[in-house]
Write a structure and sequence with these properties.
Blueprint: E1 4-8, H1 16-30, E2 37-41, H2 47-53, E3 58-61, H3 78-84, E4 88-91, H4 94-99, H5 104-116, E5 120-125, E6 132-133, E7 139-140, H6 142-154, H7 160-163, E8 167-170, H8 184-201, H9 204-209, E9 211-215, H10 223-229, E10 234-237, H11 244-253
Parallel strand pairs: 1-2, 1-10, 2-3, 3-4, 4-5, 5-8, 8-9, 9-10
Antiparallel strand pairs: 6-7
The structure holds 1,3-dihydroxyacetonephosphate.
Length: about 260
């Protein structure tokens, strides 16, 4: 399976002109590259324009609502995103969980509506603290506690035949935007834990087929550690995806 490299522009850049320039440069730099799947997720406001420029490049949205239409002021329907030509939708990013109080139940509803409409969800999960302690001061394995609970709740009621369409992005919150990426050994432990949890929730074949990405301070320097070093299925890139040549390097080094 080709590595999957996803750019999450978050709420950047602030003009359509800059967005077009960034996308145009990325596209040009990776045009000839083969053996890798690239998805760019711009803000909603730029989607129609970027999709018109995309050619073979896949485009994703950073969020959607869990209803198809109706009186939901300010929200965006998965049907609208599909109609525009989006293929992927990021669901449950930690910034949505933190700033918009998204719950696992809401994330679960979004996954279901995205799958129903045959779009490809990218489910983000990950713990907040690297070194967590319980009330008696003992270290606890925060990753397995948080990730285990998120997987069980976020995937609740989703069948084995559909769950394989979900890409899971392990994004420890402490590694996002901090310049402190997760050590590849720890990312490896998270991947093994996610596959074990999927085996328990479904079965081994499902666990092996679900794509698992790493996200959190990914750069062209460390991408190899995840994609080659520990065989992850790709990376979800934030800040570094706003620099076209740095993002193009990430894409090329992942092959
Ligand atoms: P950074 O690459 O800026 O750490 O962001 C990661 C992320 O949140 C991608 O969704």
């Amino acid at each position: 399976m080709n590595p999957l490299i996803i750019a999450n522009w978050k709420m950047n850049p602030v003009t359509l002109k800059e967005a077009e320039r960034l996308f145009g440069t990325v596209k040009k730099e990776i045009e000839e590259v083969e053996g890798v799947e690239v998805v760019v997720c711009p803000p909603f406001a730029y989607l129609p324009k970027i999709i018109s420029l995309a050619g073979d490049l896949a485009i994703g949205a950073q969020n959607c609502f869990y209803q198809e239409k109706g009186a939901y002021t300010g929200e965006v329907s998965p049907l609208m995103l599909k109609d525009l030509g989006c293929q992927y939708i990021i669901v449950g990013h930690s910034e949505r969980r933190k700033y918009f109080q998204e719950t696992d139940e809401g994330v679960n509803n979004k996954l279901k509506i995205v799958l129903k409409n045959l779009l490809k969800p990218i489910l983000c999960i990950g713990e907040e603290a690297r070194d967590a302690f319980n009330s008696s001061g003992r270290p606890v394995n925060e990753m397995s506690l948080v990730v285990g609970e998120q997987l069980a709740k976020d995937l609740n009621g989703i069948s084995a035949s559909r769950v394989v369409e979900i890409t899971i992005a392990y994004e420890p919150i402490w590694a996002i935007g901090t310049g402190l990426p997760c050590l590849s050994d720890d990312a490896m432990k998270a991947v093994l834990f996610i596959r074990k949890t999927l085996t328990n929730l479904y079965n081994r074949s499902v666990a092996e087929r679900v794509r698992i990405l790493y996200g959190g301070s990914v750069t062209s320097q460390n991408v190899i550690d995840y994609v080659k070093g520990i065989n992850m299925n790709g990376v979800l890139v934030g800040a570094a995806s706003l620099n076209a040549s740095e993002f193009a390097k990430i894409v090329k080094r992942a092959i």
